[in-house]
C-alpha cells in the first residue's frame, strides 16, 4: 500500500482506558426478519500476523437445524475483528466456493487496549453457495515488521434465517458462476492490468444472467481520483501524484464485446490521506466495498450454445491508450436462472450499441504562478437488446440500457513553489435499467460526489489538513432475485496531522447522515458524529434500528508519539519519540 497519501498512525498506550476503541462503518443492519428462527454457525476464527499469500481456509457444511438446506429466508454474516498495536489498513477478501462474496478492509489499530469492529452483511443473494458444502477462504494480507506489530484476530459467523409461511424462502439463482481465479488456495480476485479473462460455459437453458463486479484500486491506483492526466503531470513537482488521469471505468466484456460498465465509488481506506478523519467512524464502504450489477441477459442467445465463452474484466482510463497504473483487484460472478425445460434457449441479439470506451475529454490550464487545474469529463451510453425463446416456449424481449457521466476537477494551487493545496471535485452519476418483457429487472440510479480539499501547511508537507465531503446516493435493484435498496449517505469529515521531532499529533471529525429504505418496507436512518475519537451524537431510527441503543465508549485522544507517514512528493517520514 505504498503511496504518498497513505499515512500510518501509531498511538501509544492509553492511561486507564478500560475497553478497546469500537470502530465502525455507518450502514444499515441486514434487512432480515427478526421474527424468523435463526441458526448461527461459526465459519472461521483466524489471526492474521505475517499472512501475505496465506489465507485462512476452512471447509463449510450447511446447517441442517434451520429448515431444509437452501430454503432459508435470508443469510447474514458477522465479521468481528480485534487488533492491538500498530498496523496499516489491509484489504480483506472473502471467497466462498470460488466466488468473492465480501470485500473489506481493516481500520488501523491502536496499541494499549486496541480496537474492535463488527460488520454485519446480508449475503442472501449467495444462497446457492451456502446450500452446498465447500471451501471458505479469507485472505487478509498482513505484514509484521519493526514498528508494525498489529495482528488482526478475526471471527466470522453466519446466521441462517429459517423460512416459514410468514417469511418465504428467498428467491435464488439456479447457479452462480465465478468470474475469478478459481483457486482453492488463494483469493478469487485478479490483479489488473492486464485485462482479466476467464472462459466459462453457461447452461444451455439459461434465461436470465446477472453479473456482479467487485473492483478496488490499490498501490498507484488507491487514490485514482487524485491521479493526473499524463498531459499535465510534468507541470506538477515530481512525486506530487501519479499519472493515468482520474477517470476509471470497470468494464465487463463477453467474447470481446462490451456487456456493460461501472463507474466505481471511491472507497477511502482508513489510512487514506488523514487517518485521524477515519477513526472511529471509517469512511463509507471501507468495511463493505460496494459492488456493481449489470444485466447480461441480452447475451443469452449468444451464450446458450453449450460452448465456453470468454468473460473479461478490466479497468480503463481516459488517457489516449486507456491504460492505468498498477493495480486494481477485480472479480465477479454470474447469477444464472435456467428454464424448467432442459432444451436450449435460442434467439437473437437485435440491437447492440456500445462503444469500446467512454467518450472522454481532458482540458486544463497552467497558471503563471504554477497553479494547475485539470478537468476530465466522460460519458457513456449503452443499449443492448435481444429476443429469445426458452425450451418451454416463453419468448422474452430484453432491453439493457446504461447512461453514465463523470467529471473530475483537480486544482493544484502553489504557494512559494510548493503545492499548497490539492483539491479534487469529482462526481459520477448514472442510470442503468434492464427490462424483461417490459418489467424492470436490474435498475441502478446513482450519484457519487466526492470533494477533498487537502492543504499542506508547511513547505515540507509534514503538517496538513483535509476536508472530505463524500456521498453515496443509490437506488439499486441488483436483480429480480435480490432485495433492492435506496441509500443516501453523506460523510463530512475533517482531519489534521502534524509530524514533529517530538512526536506526531492529529485530530479529526466525522459527521454522517445515512438513510436506507427497501421495497419490503424496512427503513433505517442514522445521524452520527465523531470528534477527536469521541462520538458526539448518535441518533438511529427506522424499523431496522436496534431496540437498545449501542453505546460507544469515549476514547481519549493522546498525542501520537510515533509515526510514519507518506505525503505528496514521495516524502516518507518515520519519527521516533
Ligand atoms: C458478532 O460476533 C461477535 C463475536 O464474534 C459477537 O460478540 C457479537 O455479538 C455478534 N454480533 C451480532 C449482532 O450478532
Ligand atoms: C496490547 O499489546 C500490548 C503489547 O504487547 C500489551 O501490553 C497489552 O496488554 C495488549 N492489550 C490488549 C488489550 O491485549
Ligand atoms: C477446488 O475445490 C473444488 C471443490 O471443492 C474442486 O472441484 C476443484 O477441483 C478444486 N480446484 C483446485 C484447483 O484444487
Ligand atoms: C479461452 O479459450 C480460448 C479458445 O479456446 C483460448 O484461446 C484462451 O486461451 C482461453 N482463455 C483462458 C483465460 O483460458
Ligand atoms: C500509454 O501511454 C502512457 C503515456 O504516454 C505510456 O507511459 C504508456 O507506456 C502507454 N502504455 C501502453 C500500454 O502503450
Ligand atoms: C432469430 O432470427 C432468426 C433469423 O432471422 C429467426 O428465424 C428466429 O425466429 C429468431 N428467433 C427469435 C426467438 O426471435
Ligand atoms: C475546496 O476546494 C474547492 C475546489 O475544488 C473550492 O471551490 C472550495 O472553496 C474549497 N473549500 C474549502 C473549504 O477550502
Ligand atoms: C502559504 O504558505 C504559508 C506557510 O508556508 C501559509 O502561512 C499561507 O497561509 C499560505 N498561503 C496560501 C494562500 O495558501
Ligand atoms: C485540530 O488541530 C488543529 C491544530 O492544532 C486545530 O487548529 C484544529 O482546531 C483541531 N481540530 C479540532 C476538531 O479540534
Ligand atoms: C459536524 O457537526 C457538528 C455539530 O454536531 C458541527 O459543529 C461541525 O461543524 C460539523 N463538521 C463538519 C465538517 O461539517
Ligand atoms: C470525549 O467525551 C467525553 C464525554 O463527553 C469528554 O469527557 C472527553 O473530554 C471527550 N474527549 C475528547 C478528547 O474530546
TrEMBL record:
Top-level taxon in the UniProt lineage: Eukaryota
Residue ranges of every copy of the Peptide N-acetyl-beta-D-glucosaminyl asparaginase amidase A N-terminal domain listed in the record: 29-354
Swiss-Prot/TrEMBL keywords: Signal
Keyword Signal carried by entry: yes
Signal peptide (residue range): 1-18
InterPro entries per UniProt: PNGase_A (IPR021102), PNGaseA_N (IPR056948)
Name of the featured protein: Peptide N-acetyl-beta-D-glucosaminyl asparaginase amidase A N-terminal domain-containing protein
